[in-house]
């Protein structure tokens, strides 16, 4: 199990549940937890049809809760301008095809993530041998087949822009997945980190249930390139974010977040890298957007 980086209590963004079923982080950022994972709503309340963006789509079965929250937050029948994906693991694309079809909305992702989103490639096998709890042990049962949203799929531009999110840029943060991205808004130093780092011990079912805030590297059982994952954490720590919403766990903010992130970047090999994983010393890779090898 990964070792946690403790965070001071003042780092936790206290976000009571809103009437729309989300937790507001800023005036135009909110998240909703779907069992083991978070989705993010970007846009001010009342933004209306095509006036907002959904980041990731949760696990299978998340569609109804997402649609209900969107209607309450942005207006009845308000469709997003786009869905933006941090990456395509099963817990981030569970409702993707249903929502893309319902809303007739573009789906933006990194070029290297396309094989897992156009039906052409499965993710590599997980690494349950990392240990740490029930979530890791059960990982061979998690879906890793690709979804096919090729009818709506668009590739994020090389210049770092996020077309449906003016003022934001994407940052390539591979390691957990070859095409994972984080989203960064310089104006207020807001970070949507995906699974580059998380704020709960995602390998442990107990930790996932209680959501005790602490900083961890990416979920170990799906991480396929540990040197790249370390480099990605260094990249995000160098941004010195004011707040971070991660794919798993509660959002954090302030100096305590930055301090913990610097410690994670410094001590990553000791606290985040498991003692055993099929990918230690033999990372899965993708070349020219092709599929990961399947060990």
Structure characterization notes:
This is MBL fold metallo-hydrolase. It comes from Methylobacterium adhaesivum. The protein has 295 residues and is α/β, with parallel strands linked by helices. The chain has one domain: Metallo-beta-lactamase, Chain A (4-Layer Sandwich), CATH 3.60.15.10. It has seven helices and 14 strands. The chain has helices at 63-74, 96-103, 134-137, 205-210, 226-239, 254-266, 268-271, and strands spanning 5-6, 23-26, 29-34, 37-42, 53-55, 82-84, 107-109, 153-155, 168-172, 181-185, 190-194, 214-215, 243-246, 252-253. It has a seven-stranded mixed beta sheet, with no helix packed on it. The protein has a five-stranded mixed beta sheet with strand order 9-10-11-13-14. Strands 1-12 form a two-stranded antiparallel ribbon. Helix 1 links the parallel strand 5 and strand 6.
Query: Helix tally?
Result: 7
State the name of the first-level CATH class: Alpha Beta
Biggest sheet strand line-up:
2-3-4-5-6-7-8
**How does the major sheet shape up?**
7 strands, mixed
What is the total tally of β strands?
14
Provide the low-confidence segments as ranges.
287-295
Morphology? globular
Instruction: Look at the helices and sheets and give the structural class.
Output: alpha/beta
Radius of gyration: 17 Å
Q: What is the multimeric organization of the chains shown?
A: single chain
- Kindly report the CATH topology: Metallo-beta-lactamase, Chain A
Secondary-structure element string: EEEEEHEHEHEEEEHEHEEHH
Helicity, in percent? 10-25%
Give me the CATH architecture, please.
4-Layer Sandwich
CATH superfamily: Ribonuclease Z/Hydroxyacylglutathione hydrolase-like
How big a fraction of the residues is strand? 15-25%
Distance between the termini: 22 Å
Pfam family, one: Lactamase_B
Domain Metallo-beta-lactamase: 36-248
Protein name: MBL fold metallo-hydrolase
């Amino acid at each position: 199990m990964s070792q946690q980086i403790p965070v001071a209590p003042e780092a936790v963004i206290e976000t009571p549940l809103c009437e729309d079923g989300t937790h507001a982080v800023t005036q135009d950022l909110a998240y909703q937890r779907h069992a083991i994972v978070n989705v993010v709503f970007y846009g001010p309340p009342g933004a209306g049809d095509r006036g907002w963006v959904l980041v990731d789509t949760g696990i299978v079965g998340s569609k109804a809760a997402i649609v209900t929250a969107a209607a309450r937050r942005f207006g009845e029948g308000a469709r997003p301008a786009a869905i933006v994906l941090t990456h395509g693991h099963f817990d981030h694309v569970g409702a993707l095809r249903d929502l893309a079809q319902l809303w007739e909305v573009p789906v933006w992702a990194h070029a290297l993530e396309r094989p897992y989103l156009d039906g052409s490639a499965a993710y590599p096998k997980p690494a349950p041998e990392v240990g740490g709890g029930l979530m890791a042990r059960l990982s061979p049962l998690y879906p890793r087949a690709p979804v096919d949203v090729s009818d709506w799929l668009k590739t994020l531009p090389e210049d770092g822009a996020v077309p449906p999110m003016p003022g934001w840029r994407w940052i390539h943060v591979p390691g957990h997945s070859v095409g994972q991205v984080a989203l960064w808004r310089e104006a207020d130093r807001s970070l949507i980190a995906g699974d580059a780092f998380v704020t709960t011990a995602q390998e442990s079912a107990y930790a996932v249930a209680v959501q005790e805030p602490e900083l961890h590297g990416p979920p170990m059982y799906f991480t396929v390139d540990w040197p790249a994952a370390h480099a990605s954490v260094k990249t995000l720590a160098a941004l010195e974010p004011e707040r971070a919403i991660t794919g798993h766990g509660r959002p954090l903010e302030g100096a305590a977040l930055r301090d913990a992130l610097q410690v994670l970047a410094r001590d990553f090999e000791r606290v985040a890298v498991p003692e055993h994983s099929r990918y230690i010393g033999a990372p899965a890779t993708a070349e020219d957007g092709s599929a990961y090898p399947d060990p």
